[in-house]
Amino acid sequence: MSPHLQIINGSILEGGGQILRNSVSLAALLQKPIRIENIRAGRSQPGLKSQHRTGLDLVARIASAQLTGATNGSTSVEFKPGRIELPGSWKADTVTAGATTLLIQIALPLLLFQTPKSASSSSRPSVLSLLGGTNAEQAPQVDYTQHVFLPFFRKHFLPPIKLEIKKRGYYPKGGGEINLCVWPLLPGQKLRAVNLVERNRLVTIHGLAHCAGLPRVVGEGMSQGAVKRIQEWGNKNGLSIADNGVAPAAVAAATAGGETKNPVLMDINVKRETNGSTKGAGSGIVLWAEFENGVVMGGSAVGKKGLDPSQVGKSAAEELIKGIEAGGCVDEWTQDQIIIFMALAEGKSQVRCGTKDLTLHTRTAIWVAEQLTEAKFEVKQEDSGHWTIHCEGTGFSMSG
Ligand SMILES: Nc1ncnc2c1ncn2[C@@H]1O[C@H](COP(=O)(O)OP(=O)(O)OP(=O)(O)O)[C@@H](O)[C@H]1O
């Protein structure tokens, strides 16, 4: 065994690919050689899939690392990081419909800290060109990353990031393409801690129902299913939810006295990709709710053959409503995706989650962060019933 090789047990808690992604990102930044064993032991087909291998290879290139054992199905890899490259252009292809957004998950922490040689070259971003799936299940749909995760990230942690969807890629063919531009931090600069314990009034619900290689009615059906469910929920909860600025009959009646109680604007667009612009057919919907103080929460669903589009829209709405009703400042997906950044940020972060226990993904991300960094996490259930994540971050930065 190589000296000082830290072993990470990939079967802990969630036992999925996120352990691999978070471990390798942190190992690269902190210059720690690691071996990850029992990779994805918690999944029905354990070991590396094409998308995980692609992510490892991408990070190995950015971090000039030595990577061994990264073959399809492998349950153990070694990663010995070298010097993190300067900002540049990187391309990665999952080959399958594997999620490009999970490639963002593994690479983003490194891209933030690709310290330019001098402050004058700081305007140069790194550009990731990622090929594969864009709207799959069990991973963020690219529109979720675009409209929920990145707005949160930019607001709280600081660095500017731009995501462009060039082409959608659906299961099983993939073939999508996205570009991510990340402007790295300056030498010595640190991520800010997050302090998010209040959630104000719900003001808007946006959404996008997308489809390709299928008639537009599929997108319209998903949108209508979501609108119907959200308005039913709004009516029950004393919210006047106006669809695209037009008050529905029930809302108009409720507000007939001239006084509009808790108005919420809803705008769910339908986008049908042009013929031939995607490799295969597919559909999905992503919804996001914005609150007065900038809190954003999402809900999504992917269309499937034989599934009524309005049911797909309804299940995205159910997911969004579940998140809103839980009363936290982040939804269940953003919850685990911010842990690595809380660990790297400077000072105390605190984020209020819902009244439901933290997700297993979140507990796993905390476990990984504690294995590889000095960050200290504390998870508490408040008197209100909400779970709050507290973290004393490490204030990581790169020297010039
Ligand atoms: N519907 C969703 N919306 C947003 N993010 C999601 C959604 N589903 C899963 N995610 C995120 O995707 C990541 C999946 O991590 P996981 O460990 O399950 O990956 P994996 O094992 O590589 O996945 P798979 O077994 O599908 O290959 C987590 O960060 C989770 O929050």
TrEMBL record:
InterPro entries: RNA3'-term_phos_cycl_insert, RNA3'_phos_cyclase_dom, RNA3'_phos_cyclase_dom_sf, RNA3'_term_phos_cyc, RNA3'_term_phos_cycl-like_CS, RNA3'P_cycl/enolpyr_Trfase_a/b, RPTC_insert. The active site is at residue 361. It comes from the Eukaryota. One of its GO terms (biological process) is RNA processing. Residues 13-379 form the RNA 3'-terminal phosphate cyclase domain. GO terms for cellular component: nucleus. ATP binds at residue 105. Pfam families: RTC, RTC_insert. Residues 198-324 form the RNA 3'-terminal phosphate cyclase insert domain. GO terms for molecular function: ATP binding; RNA-3'-phosphate cyclase activity. Keywords: ATP-binding, Nucleotide-binding. This is Uncharacterized protein. The lineage of its organism: Eukaryota, Fungi, Dikarya, Basidiomycota, Agaricomycotina.
